């Protein structure tokens, strides 16, 4: 997909906030001294009276957002995923989730692709943390087109929403006729005979790239874009499991507790089939260029191909 336009999902987040700000004066944006990085600076420039820089005080920012939501405003609170989901977890849980307030958390710089910022900033645990909060919707868009639609859907939804965005520019794959985003509904790119690849975030494009490589090895793989981690599209997952009998889950997140955890929890109770979780395998990241790190942790196209082929055929490149 080298010739495909590539845009970071955080860019789409920032631009869509400006669109929403023009349409609804109840939209307010809060940031924790990272407006330039999270791209909420676009909103700040357009609507300075509705942007609040809370400083490096993420927990306090969540409390402010809760207060604004209780007055009828629609606050979008932004910081790096490590700080929004990690540092401020208690406040998100108790001040936003518990009273089920209408707060939208725009978490940028998620996953290993944060790159050179290193392990302290590479949040591979956020989807697990957020999906544990009762009533929290968790969205992880795959490209800039989907990010725009996810932000707009979150603004229309009544209740807390966690949105996950990335720093790395990724291929635009959803700029096509018939594309439609709906919270809780996966998008099926193709159906397979041998295995279904259920991917989320930037891993959707990687899954699509791996399909022709797998086909050369005689493996017919289908691809599902699971942009909503919670509520999970159980119906689509069940149909895929019954059709192919094997599932691989691809995520730029720990294999513990994220989309892989959600899929295996559901299938183990309703239709047990072999599942391969492809993600960060219970380790911390390290500092380096984003694409090099994806390759190192087996999350590039070739790494996916090797892991899926081994899973389906019992093949190992070292044999």
UniProtKB/TrEMBL annotation:
InterPro entries: PDH/Transketolase (IPR051157), THDP-binding (IPR029061), Transketo_C/PFOR_II (IPR009014), Transketolase-like_Pyr-bd (IPR005475), Transketolase_C (IPR033248)
Organism domain of life: Bacteria
Co-factor(s): thiamine diphosphate
CDD domains noted in UniProt: TPP_PYR_DXS_TK_like
Keywords: Thiamine pyrophosphate
Cited Pfam families: Transket_pyr, Transketolase_C
Domain Transketolase-like pyrimidine-binding: 7-172
Gene3D superfamilies (UniProt xref): 3.40.50.920, 3.40.50.970
PANTHER family assigned to the protein according to its UniProt record, in alphabetical order: PYRUVATE DEHYDROGENASE E1 COMPONENT, TRANSKETOLASE-LIKE PYRIMIDINE-BINDING DOMAIN-CONTAINING PROTEIN
Stated family: Belongs to the transketolase family.
The protein's name in its UniProt record: Transketolase-like pyrimidine-binding domain-containing protein
Source organism of this protein record: [Clostridium] citroniae WAL-17108
């Amino acid at each position: 997909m080298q010739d495909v336009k590539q845009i970071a999902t955080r860019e789409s987040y920032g631009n869509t906030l400006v669109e929403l700000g023009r349409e609804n004066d109840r939209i307010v944006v809060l940031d924790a001294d990272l407006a330039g990085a999270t791209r909420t600076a676009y909103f700040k420039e357009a609507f300075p009276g509705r942007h609040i820089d809370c400083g490096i005080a993420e927990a306090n920012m969540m409390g402010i957002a809760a207060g604004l939501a209780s007055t009828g405003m629609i606050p979008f609170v932004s910081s790096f995923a490590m700080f929004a989901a990690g540092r401020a977890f208690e406040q998100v849980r108790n001040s936003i989730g518990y009273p089920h307030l209408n707060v939208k958390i725009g978490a940028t710089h998620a996953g290993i692709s944060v790159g050179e910022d290193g392990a302290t900033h590479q949040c591979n645990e956020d989807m697990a943390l957020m999906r544990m909060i009762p009533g929290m919707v968790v969205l992880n868009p795959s490209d800039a087109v989907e990010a725009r639609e996810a932000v707009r859907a979150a603004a229309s939804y009544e209740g807390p929403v966690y949105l996950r965005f990335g720093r790395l520019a990724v291929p635009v794959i959803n700029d096509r006729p018939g594309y439609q985003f709906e919270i809780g509904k996966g998008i099926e790119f193709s159906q397979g005979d041998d295995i279904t690849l259920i991917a989320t975030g930037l891993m959707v494009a990687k899954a699509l790239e791996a399909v022709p490589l797998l086909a050369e090895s005689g493996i017919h793989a289908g691809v599902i874009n699971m942009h909503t981690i919670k509520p999970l599209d159980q119906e689509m997952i069940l149909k895929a499991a019954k059709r192919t009998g094997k599932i691989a889950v691809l995520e730029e997140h720990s294999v513990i507790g994220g989309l892989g955890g959600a899929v295996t929890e559901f299938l183990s109770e309703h239709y047990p089939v072999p599942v391969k979780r492809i993600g960060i395998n219970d380790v911390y990241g390290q500092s380096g260029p984003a694409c090099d790190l994806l390759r190192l942790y087996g999350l590039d196209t070739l790494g996916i191909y090797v892991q899926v082929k081994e899973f389906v055929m019992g093949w190992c490149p070292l044999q």
